[in-house]
Task: structure prediction
Amino acid sequence: MANINMHEVDEQMEEEELQEELHETIESLLMEISKTLYVLYQYIANIQDEYVHRPLNRQPISTSGYNYIHRILKENPINFREIYRMYPDIFLKLCKILRERTSLQDTRHICVEEMLAMFLLVVGHNTRYCLIRKTFGRSHYNTSQNFNKVLKALKSIAVDMMVKPGSAVPEKIRESTRFYPYFKDCIGAIDGTHIPAMVSGQDINSYRNHHGEISQNVLVACNFDLEFIYVLSVWEGSAHDSLVLTDALSRNNELKVPGGKYFLVDGGYPNRRQFLAPFRGVRYHLQEFTGQGRHPENAKELLNLRHASLRNAIERIFGSVILMNFQLN
Result:
């Protein structure tokens, strides 16, 4: 009996010691938590209205870009157009379209206006990322990410934003006896242009054009109001214009020509159905007809002159709309 009682006493003592140790442990933890909370409270109290220092490899979130773009939108619209290649009202309209029709949206740290402004500085002035970072207070990574987001968004709505070929006679042709009725079924002009490209590796030779430069051969169709109808920008600089046109007619998003209508093309394309090229071996370019005594001498030269005058729309869209507004090299 005595042995049993002693055993029970030992178990009771061990249980009390465990409870005491547990109590001391909990009390110690509560004291440490209390000390930690006090230190945090003092830290927060000391840094109120002060800049929070972060590690050097991480830039703080900045509102300078947001403030900058919203300030400049309210300033001189002419200055805004010189910088961003469009007037403020057009810029804001494009931002609205991007929000409503694409996945591009404001985030917690950057708005669509700021993203689009950075994009336009790059494509409009060939501005380097290092300058974009200084203007908007963003990191190199953030600038690159936002550029690609805007590019992807614009690409997704590009087809819908293009003007659709119409069946009516264009005003430029209808109102001129030089062109009507001879070109009454013409709806626009087509040509290719070479856009400088950055290519590395084994593919570089296929992108080298006949001038020895690395480029993409981009096919563009426009109407006589200088509005884009179709753009194809997937071919290497070495590709011939006629090959690019043939590809454009066979794609899922093909170049569509209404029945009975045609586009004007230059001598680099074959004369084929729906595409009217000038007479070969005969004066064609406008400068060849300028000056005293250089008027057309026969029917073929007369047709070529009027053909070149109409097709000049595509030259103007390359020169005044693209090259003058967007730096391509």
Notes: The radius of gyration is 34 Å. The beta strands are 186-196, 215-222, 228-236, 262-264, 275-276. The mean pLDDT is 82. Residues 171-323 form one domain.
